[in-house]
Amino acid sequence: MPRSARKKSASTTARTEVSPEGWLGSLLDRIAGTAPFDVVSDINAEVTARLERIPTQLNAYGYDPWGFNFDAMRRALVACVLIYRYYFRVETDGIEHLPKGRVLVIANHAGQVALDAAMIGTATFLESEPPRILRGMGEYWLPTVPFVSVAMTRTGSVVGTPKNCVDLLRREEAVIAFPEGVRGMNKLYSQRYRLQRFGHGFMRLALATETPVVPVAVIGSEEQAPGIANLKSLGRLLGMPAFPITLTWPWLGPLGLVPLPVKYRIYFGSPMHFSGDPDEEDAVIRQRVEKVKRTIQAMLDRGVRERSGVFW
Amino acid sequence: MKKVLITGITGGQGRLLAAKLLRRPRRYRVAGIDREPWKHHPEALTFHAVDVRKKSVEDVIRTESPDVIVHLAFIRHFGTHPALRHEVNVNGTRRLLEFAVSHGVKQFVVLSSSYVYGALPENPSYMDENYPLSASRTYPEVRDLTEVDMLATAFLWQYPKTVITILRPVNVLGPHVHSAIGRYLLHSYVLTILGFNPMLQFIHEEDVADAVTLVIDRQTRGIYNVVGPGAVPLSVAIDQTGGTAIPLPELVVRPTITALFRSGLYPFPPGAIDFIKYQCTLDGSRFQTATGFKPKYSLEQIFASVRT
């Protein structure tokens, strides 16, 4: 879509979006416009300029076929860039490995809250040329949560069904998946930087769509919210896949969700190409999955070994 | 020259399709049936006031001996007693399909809808025709329409000599035809669920009529999603059709809609609530590949055609 059309559509949506994220967003915009928040308005300008250049096609109302929205993403990215630069002080390495066109980004998952996904996405948006939006594959229960359901689709994520993933890849989008799933996200502190069992789905999809896999290691996220226990049965009672207990959650209430200000280091590895029958037996698929897992584990080990500290 | 018999011809979509076919008199001859009489129907078509539940429908098929039956005679609104709905929708369709097969009708087109898939949280954004029809899981009020679709599918496999075509269009909007979501959207104040804003696909009524014409011309057999120009969030659709959304928590919306429906004040069954909460959007590529179908109306034009 030509730039002028997209600008027009962005303003249309700002007016027409009659949902709660609309007024929350305009409140954020107002804060960003005031003098003490120069940093924020600078970031806003930077984010807007980069968003104009993402390769995603939007319709006349500013939405892509999956519900991604220019304006909602802009606001989310302003917040993410602030966290990226000033809270986690993210250092990104190897972004040049991200190929153009379809790609599956596979990473370790940890930290109780999916900030690792947000930070990897911010990295590809800020550091890659052209800027890329990563399309997240969400848990099946996320669309049942009010506001979360809207926020996830507006910022480019979808329910993690195979069909969604294949459709996105065929449209040359960049998809991020965490084969550890909640097993990684809610792992205990004692298991930090030890990859949990990987699901096989991503490999079958990579084979079916001939998509390169880019392994990513995130250092820092595994210490941001040290898990002491995971009360799975309580989680099930609340309709969630897990109920983690950390140093701060649930003791400090919502405040307990705030992660520790660890330093993030994100390593992008070189693309791995696989070919073969996507409907192969599990045992054959597992070998390829293990190859990706070993690569990420090696990147994690190296990153932990070489870092100067957890918080700096 | 093809003889086309349209059931439920007095409905919005029926009249639209009839008018479209009549514009090409050398190609089509049109006959129609409906249980309501149609006083001032176009002279070029033959009209029979019969009920699809009655045996006399068979006589009409025998005398008209159509090449194509386009089946549109469904009760889609919920003011009707469920037993009558079932009788007309399910048994009516079964009888017509049986007559069509036994009288050598070449093609039978059923206008189903996207609702048969159901709106479920785990729905992918683009469901293809192989997705299970799960509507009745959360929306028992439309079980009959799901059954109609499955019934036609069963005939499709059982009687390969008859070209059976099942079309599942997304939300239809236009001056004459509104799908259930269309009727809901066109209120001045529209109840929505706070924190949910699913993507909805729309198609213009004229494009649906074109899709039907296309499958008649090409004798296309099979099951097809018929998708319009694209999708927008519910909130944008409400705004673009000239309404005002009233987002309320689900805990309030559900009992309110249920009470209004039970008392007959608001024809929006509680089962339909999921359609304003979760997405039910379809992949239309199979139909595009099979027929080259391209919707003529853009989203802006669709909304403009019903704006109040």
Q: Report the portion of residues of chain A in β strands.
A: 5-15%
The H/E string of chain A reads HHHHEEHEHEHEHHEEHEEH
| N- and C-termini, Cα separation of chain B | 41 Å
Helix-strand makeup class of chain B: alpha/beta
Number of strands of chain A: 9
Report what the structure shows:
Helices cover 43% and strands 12% of the residues of chain A. Chain A has helices at residues 3-16, 20-33, 38-51, 70-87, 115-127, 148-154, 162-170, 182-185, 201-209, 232-237, 282-306, and strands spanning 91-93, 103-107, 134-138, 158-159, 174-177, 213-219, 227-230, 244-246, 265-268. In chain A, strands 1-9-6-2-5-3-4 form a 7-stranded mixed sheet, with helices on both faces. Chain A has a two-stranded antiparallel ribbon with strand order 7-8. Chain A starts with a helix and ends in a 6-residue tail after the last helix. By secondary structure, chain B is an alpha/beta fold. Chain B has a single domain (2-179, 202-228, 281-296), classed as NAD(P)-binding Rossmann-like Domain (Rossmann fold). Chain B contains 11 helices and 12 strands. A 7-stranded parallel sheet of chain B has the order 3-2-1-4-5-6-10, with helices on both faces. In chain B, strands 7-9-11 form a 3-stranded mixed sheet. A two-stranded parallel ribbon of chain B has the order 8-12. The interface between A and B is medium-sized, with 31 and 34 residues.
Top keywords for this entry?
heterodimer, A: 312 residues, alpha/beta, Glycerol-3-phosphate (1)-acyltransferase, 2 domains, two-stranded antiparallel ribbon, 11 helices, B: 308 residues, Rossmann fold, seven-stranded parallel β-sheet, three-stranded mixed β-sheet, 38% helix, 20% strand
